[in-house]
Amino acid sequence: MKDLLFLVVVAAALGLLPMPAAAAERKAAEVECKPTDEKLVYDCMITVKAKASGAPIADAEFTVGADMPSMPGAHNVRPVPAEPHGMAGMYRARIELEMTGEWALKLDFIKPSRDRLIKKLHFGGMAGKEGSESGMSQGKHQSMSHGVHKGKGN
Predict the structure, then answer these.
(1) CA 90, CA 83: separation in Å to the nearest integer?
(2) Who has the most CB within 10 Å: 32, 64, 140, 141?
(3) Mapping DSSP to helix (H, G, I), strand (E, B) and coil, where does residue 13 land?
(4) pTM for the complete prediction?
(5) What's the mean pLDDT when you consider all of the chain?
(6) Out of 21-25, 66-70, 131-135, least confident range
(7) CA 126: distance to chain centroid?
(8) Is the dihedral of CA 23, 26, 32, 38 positive or negative?
(9) In the chain, what's the furthest Cα-to-Cα distance?
């Protein structure tokens, strides 16, 4: 009996026991950022859902940070906490960028389970590229209008 209990404790400690499906399910997010009156400051609305089921994920805890893929480590934004906004699965974060261009937003989840999503978005300023988006999973560019920047997938 002691040996069985010992094996269960060791398996649990090593993460070998199955986890509930909802807690282990990957997340998907859609991100829409709009410029504010402040230069290089954006309000981002983030919709978070379970990737497989599409169900909104309420009570998530995560931060939103950013890094410029073209200059790794040179320009990065300190992560800010996302706050619940309106209905289940909707969150808001205000980010302040260092310059215009393509940024990779990093959504780092700690609740309901650890996960990281990366969303590439283009933020104004470059002639001919204003408002384009780059989806990580689709790998395509789409034209956007009215200063709204969106990222979908993952």
Answers:
(1) 9
(2) 64
(3) helix
(4) 0.66
(5) 75
(6) 131-135
(7) 24
(8) positive
(9) 71
**Lowest mean pLDDT across 22-26, 32-36, 101-105:** 22-26
pLDDT at 86 over 70: yes
Residue position matching structure tokens 């996960």: 115
Query: pLDDT at position 141, please?
Result: 32
Domains assigned to the chain: 26-151 (2.60.40.1930)
Q: What is the pLDDT of residue 34?
A: 94
Name the token pair of 3. 């040996």
Q: Report angle CA 131, 136, 139 to the nearest 5 degrees.
A: 75
The residue count for the chain:
154
Contact present, 141 and 132 (Cβ < 8 Å):
yes
The number of beta carbons lying within 10 Å of the beta carbon of residue 27 is 20
R_g of the chain computed on alpha carbons: 19
Write out the two tokens for 112: 């309901």
Is residue 49 within 8 Å of 89, Cβ to Cβ?
yes
Give residue-wise pLDDT tens across range 92-119: 999 999 999 999 999 999 999 999 999 9
> How far is 35 from 149, CA to CA, in rounded Å?
9
Tell me how far CA of residue 127 lies from CA of 38, 42, 50, 101, in angstroms.
Answer: 21, 20, 37, 11
